[in-house]
């Protein structure tokens, strides 16, 4: 397993999962291309506000959509 991250994914940020893996399946979340704007916010900001680190329902829906897909 390589520890190298392809340049196309930079910048990558890693944040601790607010729910400790209950919804995401992992204790840490890696957000690739964190500065790309989606839904009017950088991906990193969106993930912290509306994604897997949001409220229980949002985190559960995000986990379900991204882990079952």
Structure description:
This protein is an alpha+beta fold and 69 residues long. It is 28% helix and 17% strand. The strands form two sheets. Strands 1-2 form a two-stranded antiparallel sheet. The protein has a two-stranded antiparallel ribbon with strand order 3-4. A hairpin with a 2-residue loop joins strand 3 and strand 4. The mean pLDDT is 80.
Topology:
Elements: E1 13-16, E2 28-31, E3 37-38, E4 41-42, H1 43-49, H2 56-67
Antiparallel strand pairs: 1-2, 3-4
Low-confidence stretches: none
Determine the strand fraction and express it as a percent band: 15-25%
Largest β sheet strand count, sense and barrel closure? 2 strands, antiparallel
Q: How many β strands by DSSP?
A: 4
Radius of gyration: 12 Å
Q: Specify the number of helices.
A: 2
Shape verdict? globular
Structural category is: alpha+beta
Helix amount, in percent?
25-40%
The strand order across the widest sheet is: 1-2
Keywords:
single chain, alpha+beta, two-stranded antiparallel sheet, 28% helix, globular
Brief write-up:
The protein contains two helices and four strands, in the order ββββαα. It has 69 residues and is α+β, with helices and mostly antiparallel strands.
